[in-house]
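Purpose: get a first structural picture of the assembly so the mutagenesis plan has something to point at.
Setup: two entries, given in the order below. No constraints added.
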Amino acid sequence: MSGYYSSVSTVLLLLTLSFNSIAEEVNVYSARKENLIKPLLDKFSAETGIKTNLITAKADKLLTRMVNEGRNTPADLFITTDAGRLDRAKRAGVLQKIESPVIDKAVPAHLRDVDGQWVGLSQRARVIFYARDRVKPGELSTYEDLADPKWKKRICIRGSSNIYNQSMVASMIAVKGEAETLQWAKALVTNLARKPKGGDRDQIKAAAAGQCDIAIANTYYYGKMLDSKKDVKQVEAANKMAVLWPNQNDRGAHINVSGVGVSKHSKNKDNAVRLIEYMLSAESQAWYASVNYEYPVVADVPASELVASWGEFKSDAINLSRLGELNAQAVKIMDRAGWQ
Amino acid sequence: MLDRLWQPGIVLIALILAIPIFTVAGFLFQPSEDIWQHLLDTVLIDYISNSLLLMVGVGLGTFSIGVTCAWLTSVCQFPGKRVFVWALLLPLAMPAYIIAYTYTGMFDFAGPVQTAIREWTGWGYGDYFFPEIRSIGGAIAMFSFVLFPYVYLLARAAFLDQSVCVIEVSRTLGCNLWASFYRVALPLARPAIVAGMSLALMETLADYGTVSYFGIGVFTTGIFRTWFGLGDSAAAAKLAAILLLFVFTLVLVERASRRKAQYHHATNRYQQLPQYQLTGMKAWIACFACLMPLLFGFILPAVQLGFWAVDTYAEMVDESFVRLTLHTILLGLSASVLAVLLALLLAYGKRVIASKPVIASVRIVATGYAIPGTVVAVGVIIPFAWLDNTIDSFMREQFDISTGLILSGSLFAVMFAYMVRFLAVSIQSVEAGLGKIKPSMDEAARSLGYKPSHILLKVHLPLMKGSVLTALLIVFVDVMKELPATLILRPFNFNTLAVRAFELASDERLADSSTAALMIVAAGLIPVILLSKSISVSRAGS
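Result (structure tokens, whole complex):
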């Protein structure tokens, strides 16, 4: 009997050792969905011979997994679709400083962590869309204007559980403070045409169909709608709407990034940094941003033709780490405002 | 030997499977005064009232659809009955979030149906009434459409298993068909119906995808928001604890109302159940009553998905798609076999031993079904990672080698979460099967010198083949649809159909997600058809 057990445990031990001793690879925990990241990883593998392994899930849950796996975590890179979660990871102590002059040079400072623990990979703006036939461009120009009583029952926006709304409210707290933001949120809620539901694309569609006149959404959803070749209706709906870049005379339009950090306990740190550098190369940037209709983070890489057609805009230059710090406050304010 | 180990064995299995529940419950003791107060002041009342409303609605919906269809297909003859018998199980293969996305795509204000109405009539927003899909009523409809088969399945099996004598006696005593249903068949089938409804309600309580898409604040959405948005795991655990309270209340209410009544067969002399030939209007009404749930729960969404899939499948189906289909099916098969083995062990142990610790153990294990998948997943990650890291530290100190993560990020962890989540389903089904076997059968077998383990193999298993198959197949279909736990616990480069479908659908790429969604349905079809065959042949004596 004991011989049996010892041989089983030897086999188990050998198995675990062999699992741990695979060379040249990089392991990615990604909140960016498979179809928006895997092609790039495959290309990286083909060019460098470094194997890439991928798990995708929601950022918070991947973070929970990383925290608990501790020093034995297999994760080398942690990719999210918003800066708030990267900041959460940093504060949970699972990231490390990324040391690469290439990266520091390529990405503007406000799209990087102040301590160099994460870096943006693509930018998206959360903007105001208006129905061309019912709203004149001069009627509003800022997020603050959305609280104006003249928009009563005319605005569509998704629920407050969504991180993009949380970040947007956080960015408002950063400039206006808590009390004023609460006032704004309450007024916005009374201006809603319907209970918040669905995703960003839904809001644009509802506005195009006449349920409301104004929709708040991320720019890339608009791009996806305009480019949905098989669905003429979506293109028609998107064409009825126009982009309004908010707050161009003060702080600029609210932006967020999808970004990446290196795991503190990474066992393939060199490969991980190499992969980030690869993702910031001109060619990858063009692909990575265009596949999801986003803006590249590297200054001299142009946005795709469609995205560029919406015009240049001034973006809010607040360091994105701040949004993470203010997130819980934002959620509370939305609860108090009755924003479902 | 085996019999002596049974009780401690059951308690041990239950304790291990309860680790995730205890882990989450452990957060209760972390301080969270201000966030909890904030929830009390703002959203908690909404969570409670919405959850209650949802439960009442889905309870009524699944009961009325499930029992009506089960009774009609059990004792009546009408056009299309032979098809309805198995086709009514098909909605089970539809994940609730998929039909929610599909119906929204079709019937939303900006969708094709309402757009057509507006183009046709020239009306605008607010000029006409159209039911709002993304509302609590819509959510009740979505859940009722896809979850009624639980009630249908178990109720029909119960009706078919009822001794024909009781029905005939009731008829000779002057009951018409309605009265013998209402006064005899329904009370006798009650444990099965309640089991089916509690499965449907637990699945409703654990749902996240549908309610979050519809913008309805319930416990699951509240838990995630509090945990991740507000970053307070203790307040989130308190919400989860209230959710569990709901489940326990559900169980207790049913037990209290049943009191000490037991439902066994009065006799084992079976005949073919009498079939009432419905004619004329009645026949068509019966046909209509069975067609509607099938239409809304399966045909309509499947056709819509089919149209989308025709457009997109060429881009979506590749080598990796085939691989992930195989992964999903293998995962479903192994999980369902394991779940049934454990259920047999636990449910049968409870029947044989029926001591307090055993009954309590089985009850604890059976609550996992109502816990949202993500909560279970977090409850698995924490203890597994702790164990791995403890072993690793020990090995590093003692032998200077690192064992790394052994359980975390392995398929074992995924499988473990499935057991926590779905064991309830197989236990319900197996218990329902065992409950129909009179204790005198056990006594007779024991007096003939059989040990309990032998009785299980030689007497019970053959008698409850139908229930065991049911358990296997429901767990299989559930695993095929399972999302959050798979998503977060899976190993590198491991994907399932549900993950693929959800990633695309939640990105509002409905058309692209349709191929994977249809594949889930297709893979679910085979077991569903097998299942209906197994019920038909499960009638003892036929």
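The mean pLDDT of chain B is 83.
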